[in-house]
Amino acid sequence: MTLKERLVRLIETGGPIPVSTYMQLCLHDPAQGYYASRPAIGRDFITAPEISQVFGELIGLWLVHEWRAMGSPDSFRLVEIGPGRGALMQDALRLAMVAGSEDFAKAMQLTMVEMSPALREMQCAGLSSAAPEFVSTLAEVPSGPMLLVANEYLDCLPARQFRKDGTCWRECVVGLNGERELVFGLAANEQAAPEGVAAASAAVEVQVGLDLILADLVMRDAPYRALFIDYGPSDVAPGDSLRSFKDGKQVSPLALPGESDLTVDVDFGRLARLATKASLDVAGPVPQGMFLMGLGAQARLNQLVKANPDEADAIYEAVRRLIDPAEMGERFKAICLSSPGLPQPAGF
Ligand SMILES: C[S@@+](CC[C@H](N)C(=O)[O-])C[C@H]1O[C@@H](n2cnc3c(N)ncnc32)[C@H](O)[C@@H]1O
Q1: Alpha carbon of 121 to ligand 1 centroid (Å)
Q2: Contacts of 268 by beta carbon, 8 Å cutoff, 6+ apart
Q3: Longest CA pairwise span in the chain (Å)
Q4: DSSP three-state, residue 175
Q5: Which residue CA neighbors atom 24 of ligand 1 most closely?
Q6: What are the CA-CA distances from residue 344 to residues 56, 65, 95 (Å)?
Q7: What is the pLDDT of residues 196-216, one digit of tens each?
Q8: Rg of the chain (C-alpha set)
Q9: pLDDT digit string (tens) for 223-237?
Q10: Which of 88, 234, 262, 274 has a CB 3.0–4.6 Å from the CB of 285, allowing a cystine?
Q11: How many Å separate Cα 94 from the centre of its chain?
């Protein structure tokens, strides 16, 4: 039975399901979810570390800088959540080893937070010399100083969607029409206005996973620092941003459950508010272009072009995509959450 057929059965038996449940099943069903069974990074969608090595390399320099800012602990966890094919970490470690000398390498234990068996295999193959350990959730990362990085992970966290219906709010659900096709609808029950929603909003998305990340971070002993890069607004909560991608093209989120990627915009304003309320230090969000330029993107670009003159145009074009405000430079943001008392992180 396909995931679509299972979803139809589930809804016929128990009634419409929240959009967040639909997203969770489509992405992470252990047998037929997108990431569990057929993640196609580079074909369905492309991410910054897959566009240019400069992205991961600058994060490598950032990691060494922040390790030193934490007092160069002689043992720490280097954690990546949602590492995809492992490109970011491969580029980061290559540069970190050069910039950080042997001490950084000796002190580091690489820990990957990844639920997808298919992606774990790829990450293992590309990073075998760093002997990564694998866990499925941030809560499982052993104690000790930690530097964490996550690119395009937050946008995969399932979002509950709410919509104003006249004067009341209702949750958006996935149900069935008369032809037993998946359709969006509204739950019968009214509910209170979602927390923090602007008076003028008619729709809002809430990613409960953001609360869970904060809960996992505050439970850790200091010091730690977590860098998240993703797309989304920094001032208003997203309304309805659920999108789906297959073979580089946008498709309906209901068309190919488990066969296409599902994603939402990240509410950076809410993430910053939650972190501040939990007494973490918050830097950003800042636009990705500004963050990368602050870390030395121009200098690294110049070095690469000088070393590879035959590929100069392609190298330049790839870095431009990451930085140009008309491409990824403005829409993508970086935010850094730290245990209290550390200096301001680089790039903010
Ligand atoms: C869009 S890909 C990004 C990959 C990579 N960071 C990059 O930039 O190329 C999303 C990654 O997050 C992982 N992921 C999504 N939801 C997750 C969750 N709840 N827990 C752990 N990993 C998750 C996926 O398996 C995948 O590795």
Answers
A1: 14
A2: 230, 232, 233, 234, 284, 285, 333, 335
A3: 65
A4: strand
A5: 82
A6: 21, 11, 22
A7: 777 778 899 999 999 999 999
A8: 21
A9: 999 999 999 998 888
A10: 234
A11: 22
